[in-house]
Design brief:
Helix content is 15%, strand content 44%. It has helices at 2-29, 159-168, 258-264, and strands at 42-52, 55-64, 70-71, 76-83, 88-96, 102-103, 108-115, 127-133, 148-153, 180-189, 194-202, 208-209, 215-223, 226-238, 243-244, 249-256, 270-277, 292-298. The radius of gyration is 29 Å and the shape is flat. The termini are far apart.
């Protein structure tokens, strides 16, 4: 009887060992499945650059080569001008695609960006125009390395004209330019939202002729110097081709939506609201240092 019991135990031990080895072999040989997360992918290109007496117009295309839709409401397009050795010279206009809706996989949009350089570009000098999509990285993409397009851009000013203007010195101060200022006049707390009232004024000596980008005002909430990105607001102050004459002002307000502010702003805590007019710097102004304003407020 003892012999039979021992043989049975040995058989069970061998069976268990073989079965474990088989499971191990199955686990080792089983193929590893890697799941790919479906993401959009923005790709930008420049088809041509037009210029007329120093005013440039960039014809460009933005395409979604990814696998999912992308919401363009927070996507920025920022241009810049660089020298032949890659050194940054100045901003080259830009826009925020707040009105473009959603871009499906394989779909593309074509648009124009206009700007007037604040520094003169010399004739017969090599420059490049760079256009970057989603500079703030608001969109998670499959490939972040194809958001930049580059194209050659020509200068329009004779070098002697630039030297003459520089040597003239005080004569430059008589040149007529628009000059935008912005002010937060008040902030009101209502039942489900806050309203930020602002005033934009042209205090310059020339009319502001708004280009194809329109004139936008960027507002954002700050707490302990950290920007609350989802509470940033981009407002169109003037439509393309509108005119703001010297001394003329625009009054309006920005609304912080109730559901969004309730989820991010703590009641009775103090915050800073900041606004900036022409944040993409594509308007040539007399003074570029008076385009921002800020004001503290307490959340409801």
């Amino acid at each position: 009887m003892k012999i039979l019991t021992s043989l049975l135990s040995l058989f069970l031990l061998l069976f268990t060992s073989v079965n474990a080895q088989q499971k191990t072999m199955v686990n080792i040989n089983r193929p590893v499945v890697t799941r790919q997360i479906a993401l959009p992918d923005l790709q930008v290109s420049i088809s041509s650059i037009e210029h007329d007496k120093g005013n440039y117009l960039i014809n460009c295309t933005l395409k979604n080569t990814g696998a999912t839709n992308v919401d363009l409401s927070n996507v920025t397009m920022q241009g810049s001008i660089v020298s032949d050795n890659g050194q940054f010279i100045q901003a080259g206009g830009g826009t925020k695609l707040v009105d473009q809706g959603s871009l499906e996989p394989g779909a593309e949009i074509q648009f124009k960006i206009g700007f007037t350089p604040t520094k003169k570009l010399i004739k017969n000098t090599a420059y490049s125009y760079q256009l970057k999509a989603d500079e703030t990285n608001s969109v998670a993409e499959h490939n972040e390395s194809n958001n930049l397009a580059t194209a050659p851009i020509i200068g329009y000013t004779d070098i002697m004209e630039t030297l003459t203007s520089t040597l003239a010195g005080p004569i430059l101060s008589t040149t007529a330019f628009p000059d935008l200022t912005v002010e937060i006049t008040s902030i009101s707390a209502e039942e489900f939202h806050h309203k930020i009232y602002y005033k934009v004024k042209n205090i310059g000596t020339a009319a502001l002729n708004v280009n194809i980008n329109g004139l936008r005002l960027l507002g954002s909430v700050w707490c302990t110097e950290l920007r609350a990105e989802c509470l940033s607001t981009d407002v169109k102050v003037l439509q393309p081709h509108a005119v703001l004459t010297p001394g003329q002002e625009i009054n309006g307000y920005i609304i912080l939506e109730g559901s969004r502010q309730r989820s991010l702003l703590k009641s009775f805590q103090e915050y800073m609201y900041k606004i900036e007019i022409d944040n993409i710097k594509d308007i040539h102004e007399l003074n570029e240092n008076n385009n921002t304003a800020e004001r503290k407020f307490k959340a409801m």
